[in-house]
Amino acid sequence: MARRSLPLLKDLLSRSSPNRITTRSVTYMHRPGDGTPRPVTLIPGDGIGPMVTGAVEQVMEAMHAPVYFEKFKVHGNMKAVPQEVLESIRKNKVCLKGGLVTPMGGGVSSLNVQLRKELDLYASLVNCFSLPGLHTRHDKVDIIVIRENTEGEYSGLEHEVIPGVVESLKVITKFCSERIANYAFEYAYLNNRKTVTAVHKANIMKLADGLFLESCREVATKYQAIKYNEIIVDNCCMQLVSKPEQFDVMVTPNLYGNLIANTAAGIAGGTGVMPGGNVGDEHAVFEQGASAGNVGSEQILEQKIANPVALLLSSAMMLRHLQFPAFADRLETAVQHVILEGKYRTMDLGGTSTTQEVVDAVINALD
C-alpha cells in the first residue's frame, strides 16, 4: 500500500503551491460519481471454480462492495464460449472467472485462449509476492509477470504435414510485441516500479524472439527513468529459483510467460495465493494468477478444501481496476491478516482448514 501512498502525498502537497509542476496522477483514485454498484460478469467454471468464486461472492456481500454479479455457466468441454457470455463481458467490461478445464489433445481448443482472443485481452498480469507469515524459501519476492496473451505458441496454427509429422507455427508480430512492451513499461511507471526485464530466446529463435526483443528495446528508450534488462529464458528460470529478489517487472512472449509465472508463483507460496488478470484496452478478466492445475481435483472438491486466497486477491485487483480502492485495500488487508495469523489455512499452505473456514476468517477480519 505504501507504494501508492507516497505519490498521492506528493500530489496533495504540490497543490498548495501556485507554481506547482503538473505531474501524472497516481494509478488508483476514487471513482468520481455516486458510487453506483457496477455489474460484473461471473464465470464460476469447472471443478473447484464454483467453490472459490462462491467464496468471493460471500466476502463481497459481507463488505458491501459496490458490485453485483451476472452469473453464467461455462465449462471447458464446450466447443466455444457462449455468445451471451461474451455479450455480457462486452457490456460490463469486467469479468471474474474460476478455472476452466482444457481437454488434453483431441483437437478441442481452450476456452481460456478463445476468451482472450475474442476480447483481445492481450496482457496477462500475475502478481507473485511474499505474504507475511507464509514461510517460503525466499521471503522478499515481489514480481509482476506481464505476458503477451494473444499470439506466440498459443496462436493455434497447427496441421499435420504428412502422417506422423505435425507443424505448429509460432507467430510473433511487431504490433503485439510493441503493445505488450508498452503495457509493461507503463505499468512499471504508474506503479513506481524500477526495472523491466524482457525474457526471450533470441539466441536461438533469432527472427521471432529477435522481433520481440527489438520491440522491447525501442519502447524502453521512451522510459529513461526505468532500468531495462534482458535475460534468456533458461537462465531466467535458474535465476528465479536461486535469487528471485532481483526481478521486478518481467515482460515475456506467450509461452515463456506461462512458465515464468508458475515458477514465480511456486517460489512465493503456490498457485493458491497468487492473483492475476487478463487485460485489454476495453475489457478485463480476473482469475487465479498461475495455472489452476487443481481445478479438476476430485479430492479437493470432495473435501471442500480449495484455497480461495488467490481469487480473493484477484477480486481485490478487480475492485481496484473498477476504481474502488478502499474496498480493495480492506479485502487485501483482511486476507493478509488471516495468512499472518496462520490459524486458518488450507492443505496447500500446510493447514487443515476448509474453504469455508478460510472465508469466514477473512470476513471476520474485515475492518
Q: How would you describe the overall organization of this protein?
A:
With 367 residues, the chain is α/β, with parallel strands linked by helices. The chain has a 10-stranded mixed β-sheet, sandwiched between helices. A two-stranded antiparallel ribbon has the order 6-7. Helix 2 runs parallel beside helix 12 and helix 11 crosses helix 12. The radius of gyration is 21 Å and the shape is globular. The N terminus is likely disordered.
Structure summary:
It contains twelve helices and twelve strands. With 367 residues, the protein is of the alpha/beta class.
The strand order across the widest sheet is 2-1-3-12-11-4-5-10-8-9
Approximate shape: globular
Roughly what fraction of the amino acids lie in strands? 15-25%
Give me the Rg, rounded: 21 Å
- Order of secondary-structure elements: HEHEHEHEEEEHEHEHEHEEHHHH
* Highest CATH level, the class of the largest domain: Alpha Beta
What percent of residues adopt helix (DSSP H or I)?
40-55%
**How far apart are the termini?**
16 Å
Q: Which architecture of the largest domain does the CATH hierarchy give at level 2?
A: 3-Layer(aba) Sandwich
Low-confidence stretches: 1-33
List how many beta strands DSSP finds: 12
**Tally of separate domains:** 2
CATH topology description of the largest domain: Isopropylmalate Dehydrogenase
Give a quick account of the main beta sheet: strands, pairing sense, barrel closure. 10 strands, mixed
Count of runs of 4 or more consecutive helical residues? 12
State the fourth-level CATH superfamily of the largest domain.
Answer: Isopropylmalate Dehydrogenase
Average pLDDT value? 88
Class by helix and strand content?
A: alpha/beta
Keywords: Magnesium, Manganese, Metal-binding, Mitochondrion, NAD, Oxidoreductase, Transit peptide, Tricarboxylic acid cycle
Protein name: Isopropylmalate dehydrogenase-like domain-containing protein
Domain Isopropylmalate dehydrogenase-like: 39-362
GO biological process, one term: isocitrate metabolic process
